[in-house]
């Protein structure tokens, strides 16, 4: 039997992950977009090192862009005790637009942590006197987690592969990877998969909603299909609530979202902005179904990043998630059309330009690179042991 637990914020997620790593008997696999050389990053590394010293097989896969300021020497002690570290798509290899945005910790092939958390003080203890970022993770334990071992192994093997070879290899396993069903569905998105399974899962949830849809996301400039599904849900009488951050680490992304507020509000969608800290959550709740993982409701997550989410149908889990959402709304402010419509012309121009850059220009450039003929083969770089 597979069990799923929703973990709220770093105060719940990181202690749970540390305890699971300390109990690991055979293997640890960590896949992360950002790891910082701060107190939280160093503590996480210490647990990995201690596990490797016990004879646990430890593999760490980190994104080269997300960890661009993390020195490779950060992992020297882990390598010395037998751990393995690999950098996903080194920047100098020409893969800049195709990032591994997945966040996954896999313990002994039976416990998985999937969510929006990166590994840094911002998510756990807070920085510069500010509160930690608001985020979620799912702790999933049971036989279905075994599937994620193959998912991690694929990502590990393609970390430095030329894109065209990567596409051929994953197309051979695509049907098997997407056919996995069970109590918990694990969905993966990648740039060469035109089926867009994560985006499709969000659409199916919205289209099947009868009463309510609650969405919390740190970055919001979704594909038009998602926007149309949300509007149609409201016309059917479904209450749609969207929770977005008031504070952000990427101003251009917030401006792009602001530019959509008018369409959302006119359609009857409630828009709220979370005030205490940066909202980095990626969670959707409708009836008894919860979707949570690394994917934002933005075009890049849907088309070009490597992402992973879990789709769980469980009344108790959805009740806990909805209670957390209600608590977050009590710490948020509603956006009203009149006040939003009175913003300055300069602000409107910033929003239009931001949306054009993120939802149009980025798509055109990245799509061109996706079909570009690859150059000569190269030697992998920065792979560690």
Set down the secondary structure blueprint.
Elements: E1 3-8, H1 9-23, E2 27-32, H2 39-53, E3 57-63, H3 76-80, E4 84-88, E5 104-107, E6 111-115, H4 121-124, E7 136-141, H5 147-158, H6 163-178, E8 184-189, H7 197-208, E9 212-217, E10 220-221, H8 224-235, E11 239-245, H9 251-258, H10 261-266, E12 270-274, E13 282-286, E14 289-293, E15 297-298, H11 299-303, E16 307-313, H12 315-329, E17 332-334, H13 337-341, H14 345-371
Parallel strand pairs: 2-3, 3-4, 9-11, 10-15, 11-12
Antiparallel strand pairs: 1-7, 2-5, 5-6, 6-7, 8-16, 9-13, 12-17, 13-14, 14-16
Helix pairs in contact: 1-2, 7-8, 9-14
Any key phrases for this structure?
seven-stranded mixed beta sheet, 385 residues, alpha/beta, 41% helix, eight-stranded mixed beta sheet, disordered C terminus
Largest sheet: 8 strands, mixed
Query: What is the terminal-to-terminal distance?
Result: 36 Å
Query: Helix share of residues?
Result: 40-55%
In terms of quaternary structure, what is this? single chain
Mean pLDDT figure: 87
Radius of gyration: 20 Å
- Poorly predicted tracts of residues: 173-180, 373-385
Number of strands: 17
User: Proportion of β residues?
Assistant: 15-25%
**Which of globular, elongated, flat, extended, rod-shaped describes the shape?**
globular
Strand order of the largest sheet: 8-16-14-13-9-11-12-17
Structural class: alpha/beta
Number of helices: 14
How does this model look, in words?
- The structure is a single chain.
- This protein has 385 residues and is of the alpha/beta class.
- Helix content is 41%, strand content 23%.
- It has 14 helices and 17 strands.
- It has helices at 9-23, 39-53, 76-80, 121-124, 147-158, 163-178, 197-208, 224-235, 251-258, 261-266, 299-303, 315-329, 337-341, 345-371; strands at 3-8, 27-32, 57-63, 84-88, 104-107, 111-115, 136-141, 184-189, 212-217, 220-221, 239-245, 270-274, 282-286, 289-293, 297-298, 307-313, 332-334.
- An eight-stranded mixed sheet has the order 8-16-14-13-9-11-12-17, with helices on both faces.
- α3 links the parallel β3 and β4.
- The two termini are 36 Å apart.
- Mean pLDDT is 87; it is low at 173-180 and 373-385.
């Amino acid at each position: 039997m597979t069990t799923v637990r929703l973990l709220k914020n770093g105060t719940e997620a990181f202690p749970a992950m540390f305890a699971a790593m300390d109990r690991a008997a055979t293997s640890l696999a960590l896949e992360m977009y950002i790891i910082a050389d701060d107190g939280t990053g160093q503590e996480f590394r210490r647990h990995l090192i201690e596990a490797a010293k016990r004879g646990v097989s430890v593999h760490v896969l980190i994104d080269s862009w997300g960890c661009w300021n993390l020195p490779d020497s950060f992992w020297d002690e882990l390598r010395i005790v037998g751990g393995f570290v690999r950098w996903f798509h080194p920047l100098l290899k020409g893969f800049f637009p195709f990032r591994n945005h997945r966040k996954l910790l896999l313990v002994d092939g039976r416990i998985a942590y999937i969510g929006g958390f990166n590994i840094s003080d911002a998510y756990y203890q807070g920085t510069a006197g500010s509160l930690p970022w608001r985020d979620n993770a799912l702790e999933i334990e049971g036989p279905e987690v075994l599937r994620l071992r193959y998912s991690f192994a694929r990502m590990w093997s393609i970390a430095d592969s030329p894109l065209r070879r990567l596409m051929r290899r994953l197309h051979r396993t695509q049907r098997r990877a997407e056919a996995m069903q069970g109590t918990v569905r694990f969905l993966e998105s990648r740039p060469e998969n035109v089926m867009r399974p994560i985006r499709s899962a969000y659409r199916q949830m919205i289209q099947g909603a009868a009463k309510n849809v609650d969405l919390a996301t740190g970055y919001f400039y979704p594909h038009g299909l998602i926007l149309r599904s949300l509007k149609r849900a409201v016309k059917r009488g479904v209450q749609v609530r969207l929770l977005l951050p008031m504070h952000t680490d990427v101003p251009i992304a917030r401006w792009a979202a602001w530019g959509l507020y008018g369409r959302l509000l006119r359609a009857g969608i409630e828009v709220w902005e979370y005030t205490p800290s940066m909202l980095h959550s990626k969670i959707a709740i409708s009836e008894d179904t919860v979707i949570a993982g690394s994917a934002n409701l933005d075009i890049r997550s849907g088309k070009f990043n490597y992402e992973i989410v879990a789709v769980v149908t469980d009344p108790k889990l959805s009740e806990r998630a909805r209670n957390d959402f209600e608590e977050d709304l009590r710490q948020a402010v509603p956006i009203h059309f009149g006040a939003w419509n009175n913003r300055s012309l300069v602000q409107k121009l910033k929003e239009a330009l931001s949306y054009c850059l993120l939802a149009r220009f980025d798509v055109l450039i990245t799509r061109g690179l996706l079909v570009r003929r690859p150059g000569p083969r190269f030697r992998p770089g920065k792979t560690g042991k």
